[in-house]
């Protein structure tokens, strides 16, 4: 759970299905790390999640190559980027899922949920349905025989507007979520993530409850 809209809705959907939530958050030196962590904790409070993991990863800054973790690279704001965006963090979801698998095995969990979105995402290769399915297979091959984990990706084929509508239906606390890549006080409204979010709210006919510059 990043503190963003997609992973938050995924958690609410899993709770609706009857799962007990074990929340996992990563501090990986992303630009909005403090804001995302505060959102994560606020959302967990709303969900009444008692079992929370916050893992600190410092190696993404050493790897660099992403505007989210390298302050020498500007976050794009013109919305014209083609191909894999510079905000892509190399193999981030693969690393996150591997660590989630270790926790899931320790906790005896049946499932991992991840809020990846394929159709209406920013073109990240580690958000694809096929990739997540391959990770599920690898996780089950690389864990104890009695471990059998299913990776749920309930949003993977939804558009952002559909995500907004589902979130409203489940009374998801959208006012506590954060999507901006740049700012921690008022969202910039022009980075790729803000653009996708605002477009989704507009198409859904719902007012975004967070503050923008």
Helix/strand layout:
Blueprint: H1 5-16, E1 23-27, H2 33-47, E2 52-56, H3 59-63, H4 92-107, E3 111-113, H5 129-141, E4 150-152, H6 160-169, H7 192-204
Parallel strand pairs: 1-2, 3-4
Notes on the structure:
With 213 residues, the protein is mainly alpha-helical. It has one domain (5-204): HUPs (Rossmann fold), CATH 3.40.50. The chain has helices at residues 5-16, 33-47, 59-63, 92-107, 129-141, 160-169, 192-204; strands spanning 23-27, 52-56, 111-113, 150-152. The strands form two sheets. Strands 1-2 form a two-stranded parallel sheet. Strands 3-4 form a two-stranded parallel ribbon. Helix 2 links the parallel strand 1 and strand 2. The longest helix is centred in the middle third of the chain and has 16 residues, at 92-107. 36% of the residues are buried.
In short:
Helix content is 39%, strand content 8%. The protein has 213 residues and is mainly alpha-helical. The model has no long low-confidence stretch (mean pLDDT 96).
Key terms:
Rossmann fold; mainly alpha; two-stranded parallel ribbon; 7 helices
- Overall mean pLDDT: 96
CATH class group: Alpha Beta
Low-confidence sequence ranges: none
Strand composition percent: 5-15%
Largest sheet: 2 strands, parallel
Oligomer: single chain
Question: In the CATH hierarchy, what is the architecture at level 2?
Answer: 3-Layer(aba) Sandwich
Total strand segments: 4
N- to C-terminal separation?
25 Å
Q: Would you list the SSEs in sequence order as H and E?
A: HEHEHHEHEHH
* Helical residue percent band: 25-40%
CATH homologous superfamily grouping: HUPs
Number of domains: 1
SS field, number of helical segments: 7
Read across the widest sheet, the strand sequence of neighbours is 1-2
Quote the CATH topology.
Rossmann fold
Question: Which structural category fits the helices and strands?
Answer: mainly alpha
Please state the overall shape, judged from the principal axes of the Cα atoms: globular
Radius of gyration: 16 Å
